[in-house]
Amino acid sequence: MAEEFAEANRKFFDDLADKYDIKPWQQDLHRKITTEIQEKATTFIEPRLAAHPPGLRLLDYACGTGMLSRALAPWITTTIGIDISPKMVDRYNALASSPTPSTKDNKTITGIVGDLLNPTPSPSLSSPDFYNFDIAGVCAGFHHFHSPALAIERLAERVKPGGVVLIVDFCLEDEEGKWIPSRADHTVTAHGFSEGTMRSVFGGAGLVEVGYSVMPGTVTLRMDGAGEGGIERKVFLGRARKP
Q1: CB 86 within 8 Å of CB 64
Q2: Exposed/middle/buried for 5, CB within 10 Å: 0-12, 13-18, 19+?
Q3: Are strands 159-170 and 235-241 parallel, antiparallel or unpaired?
Q4: pTM, to two decimals
């Protein structure tokens, strides 16, 4: 079941990769979330970033085209993006090869194909290079995992003691009926996550210092069937620390 779901996601995002973040509503969503991540980086996410210590490492899982990687680039020296979709990884690496002022100056950003949630994770992900990250995060991909709890456990394994696991995704809203079906539904397991759910999955993985912060305002999704105005969703940042 898990492998079939992963394959559905791989096919869907391979097909979507060349047009994933080019529409105005997608760019607006990315801008808003990036701004929130950067405003919260040295306070809510990881206060240690404020000192700009050298050598920090980020694991951007389900990296897509690299929104989280670029948002945290001003503080991170080495970033590894992992995604199940080869074509998304191609886009990630293409964007990483065109450095901005925040991604150059001895910074390394590399994307590879891999699946941490497979019952037998890729052997290529077993080397020391894929452990002991300062931050391991998922941005706008958590609702595509067959088991969010397992995802948190696997990410917690990859961060060093004292490291942070970060999730950026949609809030669970009371009006679940407002969700409009789209062609992505077969790749989605949840339409949002409550603070209680996030505290439960973080705690279940043995993580501490759990936080849940809701981004001001909303983002607009203009998916299939959403109509001209789209639907408005609230976004949260959830974080916790490995003891």
Answers
A1: no
A2: middle
A3: antiparallel
A4: 0.90
3-state secondary structure (DSSP) of residue 66:
coil
Query: 119-165: per-residue pLDDT in tens?
Result: 877 788 999 999 999 999 999 989 888 899 999 999 999 999 999 99
- Residue 215 is part of a domain; what is its CATH number? 3.40.50.150
- Residue 220 has φ and ψ, to the nearest 5°, of -105, 130
Q: Count how many domains the chain has.
A: 1
User: pLDDT grade, residue 188 (50/70/90)?
Assistant: low
Cα 73 to Cα 140: distance, rounded to the nearest angstrom:
17
Q: Inform me whether the pLDDT recorded for 23 exceeds 80.
A: yes
The residue segments making up the domain with residue 104 are 2-241
Q: Which residue is it, tokens 């003691």?
A: 161
